[in-house]
Amino acid sequence: MKDRRRGRLTRDGIRIHEEADLDGMRRAGRLAAEILDRMIDHVVPGITTGRLDEIITSMIETAGAKSATIGYKGYRHASCISVNHVVCHGIPGDKVLKEGDILNIDVTVIVDGWYGDTSRMYVAGRPNRRAERLMQVTHDALMLGIETVRPGNTFGDIGAAIQRYVESQRMSVVRDFCGHGLGRVFHAPPNVLHYGRPGTGAVLEEGMFFTIEPMVNLGRPETKVLPDDWTAVTRDRSLSAQYEHSVGVTSDGAEIFTLSPAGRFHPTWA
Ligand code: MF3
Ligand code: CO
Ligand code: CO
Q: Ligand 2 is a single-atom ion; what residues have CB below 5 A from it?
């Protein structure tokens, strides 16, 4: 109880964490990022997404950590694996990867009660030029969003930076899913939109922890959820990509908790 009440909430219900909370976020973020590093060699044509998820499950177990997604709202897997026109929340299963498929693997772990949430793009084999450009723009959009994180800026500044860049590249930002606060919980206020107007939304303060996780489509931004109630796809079947980091606001910028220890957040295929 004492731990849960540490820090305070802003008027928007956003938790302001303390210095002592950074250690937990760093450990959770590092484990999630390490797992994504170690998946690089497993993503090859012929493997199923279900097998990739089994490998992730055993890595989390071996690390003595817990999956945040197993049992979350009835979800039963340690990862979401979203292939080609799947925008997010792809369910691992018997889908076999083929040469040139692009996929997002999204892992959230719990380490001593702290959540680390990150995703990045992979390729089975080599990407074609359009797919490679989509992934580059999506990665760069995330990093531009993170560059706007500092006390005094707003959540609208983050979304605006992402949207402006993506649309300048004639791609579109998904509106139907957003980033989120996290810490000792998986999904907390605020909703972190990947579009918006500068100067709008809550003001960033040191000690806020949240994800930024833009989804970018080559075609139109609209999505629909399949009858399995999870898998979100582009309505026009265009290719989609996503990158996600968990970050904290520092006194003068952002700390990225989910940096790749191997330096292979992007690209994973080079
Ligand atoms: N990791 C996802 C996120 O970035 C959430 C997945 S919830 C699940 O917020 F149940 F689909 F796994
Ligand atoms: Co997230
Ligand atoms: Co995630």
A: 117, 211
Whole-angstrom Cα distance, residue 7 to residue 14? Answer: 10
Q: Tell me: the pLDDT tens digits for 69-112?
A: 999 999 999 999 999 999 999 999 999 999 999 999 999 999 99
Q: What DSSP element (H or E) covers 38?
A: helix 22-39
Ligand 1 centre to CA of 88 (Å) is: 8
Q: How far is the CA of 246 from the centre of ligand 2 (A)?
A: 8
CB atoms within 10 A of CB 71: 10
For 105, the token pair is 């693997």
pLDDT for 1 beyond 60: no
Our mutation pick for probing the ligand 1 site, out of 108, 185, 247, counting the most ligand atoms within 8 A of Cβ, is: 108
Q: Where are the alpha helices (DSSP H) in 63-190?
A: 129-147, 155-168
- The answer to whether the pTM exceeds 0.85 is yes
- Per the DSSP assignment, residues forming a β-bridge with 255 are 248
Q: Which atom of ligand 1 is nearest to the CA of 230?
A: 11
Pocket mutation for ligand 1, best pick of 35, 79, 89 (most atoms within 8 Å of C-beta):
89
What is the structure's pLDDT at 5?
A: 62
Task: Give the Å distance between the CA of 51 and the centre of ligand 2.
Answer: 22
Say how far apart CA 51 and CA 44 lie, in whole Å.
11
Q: Encode pLDDT of 186-236 as tens digits.
A: 999 999 999 999 999 999 999 999 999 999 999 999 999 999 999 999 999
CA–CA dist 40, 268 (Å, integer)? 6
Please check whether residue 186 is in contact with residue 153, taking contact to mean a CB–CB distance below 8 angstroms: no
Average pLDDT over residues 131-153: 99
